[in-house]
Design goal:
663 residues, alpha+beta, 8-stranded mixed β-sheet, 6-stranded mixed β-sheet, 35% helix, globular
């Protein structure tokens, strides 16, 4: 198969040898995952693409058809190729006869349907409206046409709620006919987790998710918990019922369930579900066909591996002793109690081992800059597919645990406040004799398969000479071979996407909006005010001070907003006795400003907002707002010429949210 990039390289002899050795040593004789991934298959649709409402392709399963050709690709880690084939499951599957069904392969996540007394209970309605609707239409066609009587969000990531409007009308929810059930804290975290660094997260997502990489053996092959993320119309309908206790029983349309809250695992708000009458356990995204991220490369707070392990252990002892079926929001179900306990123990032990062994090594003096070269799983776990790290990786997860407990510093003063790479690199290049000997040595190391040593010196050269196309191309060649050899798609994509940008420049154009009206409604006013403080260019307000009172009568909220020392702060429930300006506007109308559909001046003209006092502080604040766009370079020398300045017609608009699909 031909490489998609004219500058792209085939796998080197060293990469081929590495893949061949892995094919001999990995436990490929254990094929149970393939049997389970096919079990219960009912039908697949006669289409491979799902179109978005605006006409673009929201989902394209057919673009990965080459994975089914029974070819071993040396440009793909053999374990990853296996996972990528498993994730080609496409269509409708029966999980529990007559009661539980899943549609898989329509999005990054699975959508699950539980048959109640009168209709479908939908678990996790995917990322976008179009894929969720297609799934609902398909089960109604192939099993039985039933109304949706309830929606359950397992957790606060977008691929588990964004398609809700494809399965239910909001009027039915607001009218009390269709409950929407979620773990406590869901709405706060669904909106807040991706606000403050959202623009940076979206740019970094180009690397982790390989957004620009063609679907090819040399590019994007899988996303570990599914093929990819759908790109359609995302939305959010707020929950009407929260699960607040550690364990909470509820009967929905005749189906008994016990919910287990598991905050702080894969998401800040997440819950498992036990179906006692069916002896079936729903593991949300806490137990899937891969070890997950403790640190997500696109950016997120570091997770607690030990707590994750303990929540799995609770589920193992509370439900795993009796469970005959385990299914989840990604991957494929497991059947039989022995098999379920095997997988639950494997993932419990991986997360616990990751936490304990990293800290064991830390207490022996191993640092954050060494742990990824030291940490390894025990052989007993390496032989279990459920313990392999596809979404996470042992390298970046081990560094994450170290960072969680000890922070980024390795206790060497030289690394506490290092020079920026572009400042230190010229000295390294000078001391190595300039670009020519570095290129010669880089080619020598590349030719020896010593890719990490090669990247060490070539990266310095590219930072020192970002316009050196020859150096960028060689570094891209190095990154490419490393990417080919990686088991984790997140890591593979990061290396291959960096290679792509070094060769071709960084992407242009605007990614799809992540901040629709549903998300705006779900955000607190405080969250918006905090985001304004981040968007404010502090140099433009230096030496200025003001106090603004904000009053939103329809929800009875007040905020005192202060600018001092080039910092914007706010406090809810307070009003200054001596404000420079008081702004009164209903929260419902303020959302028009937050969403970029209107401005304060337009609201004033329409009689929907009132300014009382001196509006100079407001104008100062508005003029200091910076519109963030994900068009900054991640690798030196990749910024295109003649970039257009972003449109800033709505400076008070909420910045684009980070895409949390996939966790």
């Amino acid at each position: 198969m031909k490489h998609f990039d004219a500058k792209g390289k085939m796998p080197s002899a060293f990469t081929v040898a590495s893949q061949e050795e892995l094919r001999k040593t990995l436990p490929f004789d254990d094929a149970r995952d393939f049997e389970e991934a096919k079990k219960g298959f009912i039908a697949e649709p006669d289409y491979k693409q799902i179109m978005a409402e605006d006409g673009h392709v929201a989902w394209d399963m057919g673009s990965y058809a080459w994975l089914l050709k029974d070819v071993e690709y040396d440009s793909i880690h053999p374990s990853l190729q296996r996972q990528a084939i498993l994730n080609m499951a496409y269509g409708l599957f029966e999980v529990v006869p007559g009661k539980i069904y899943q549609v898989r392969g329509f999005d990054l996540a699975n959508i699950s349907f539980i048959r109640g007394d009168t209709g479908w209970i939908v678990f996790d309605p995917l990322t976008c409206k179009e894929t969720a609707k297609a799934a609902l239409d398909f089960i109604n066609e192939k099993v039985e046409k039933l109304p949706v009587v309830a929606v359950i969000y397992s957790h606060s990531h977008a691929d588990h709620f964004g398609g809700v409007r494809g399965v239910v009308e909001e009027a039915g929810v607001l009218g009390g006919k269709v409950p929407v059930i979620a773990p406590v804290g869901f709405l706060e975290h669904a909106c807040a987790e991706n606000v403050y660094a959202g623009n940076a997260m979206n740019r970094r997502m180009y690397f982790q998710y390989g957004v620009l990489l063609p679907h090819s053996p040399f590019g994007h092959v899988d996303q570990s918990i599914g093929k990819n993320t759908a790109s359609g119309t995302t939305g959010l309908i707020a929950p009407t019922r929260y699960i607040r206790k550690d364990f909470e029983e509820l009967t929905v349309d005749g189906v008994r369930m016990e919910f287990q809250n598991t905050p702080g695992t894969e998401a800040p708000a997440e819950m498992n579900t036990w179906f006692p009458d069916l002896k079936t356990f729903w593991a949300a995204e806490n137990i899937t066909g891969t070890v997950h991220n403790i640190y997500t490369l696109r950016g997120a707070l570091v997770r607690d591996a030990l707590l994750w392990s303990k929540h799995i252990n609770v589920a193992l002892y509370r439900y795993g002793q009796d469970a005959q079926v385990m299914f989840s929001a990604h991957s494929w179900p497991r059947w039989g109690n022995d098999r379920i306990q095997e997988v639950m123990r494997a993932q419990r032990d991986v997360y616990a081992h990751l936490n304990n062994e990293v800290l064991h090594q830390a207490n022996l003096g191993v640092t954050i800059n060494e742990i990824h070269n030291v940490y390894t799983l025990p052989d007993s776990l390496k032989r279990q597919w459920a313990a392999h790290s596809y979404h996470g990786s042992e390298e970046h997860n081990s560094r994450a645990v170290m960072n969680r407990y000890l922070g980024y510093w390795d206790a060497n003063p030289a690394t506490l406040m290092p020079l920026s790479p572009e400042d230190s690199a010229p000295l390294y290049v000078e001391m190595m004799g300039g670009a020519k000997p570095i290129m010669e040595k880089g080619r020598e190391l590349f030719g020896q398969g010593k890719y990490f040593l090669a990247q060490e010196i070539l990266n310095k050269l590219v930072y020192a000479e970002p316009d050196n196309a020859e150096a960028k191309d060689l570094l891209a060649d190095v990154f490419e071979q490393i990417g080919y050899q990686k088991e984790s798609p997140s890591v593979r994509n990061s290396f291959l996407a960096a290679a792509f940008e070094l060769r071709n420049g960084m992407p242009s154009g605007t990614p799809p909006s992540t901040t629709g009206p549903d998300m705006i409604r779900g955000m607190s006013t405080e969250l918006w005010l905090n985001s304004l403080a981040i968007s404010m260019d502090s140099t433009k307000v230096a030496g200025k001070d003001f106090v603004i009172n904000l009053v939103t009568p329809d929800n009875d909220e007040t905020y005192a907003i202060e600018l001092s020392n080039s910092v914007l702060t706010n406090i809810r429930g307070e009003l200054s006795q001596n404000p420079d300006l008081t702004i009164t506007v209903n929260r419902a109308d303020l959302e028009m400003v937050m969403g970029g559909a209107s401005t304060f001046d337009e609201l004033i003209k329409e009689g929907k907002a009132e300014f009382k006092g001196d509006r100079t502080p407001f104008d100062l604040l508005r003029g200091s707002m910076v519109k963030f766009t994900p068009d900054f370079e991640l690798m030196p020398g990749t910024l295109p010429e003649g970039r257009e300045k972003p449109d800033n017609k709505h400076p008070m608009q909420m910045p684009e949210l980070g895409n949390t699909a996939g966790g």
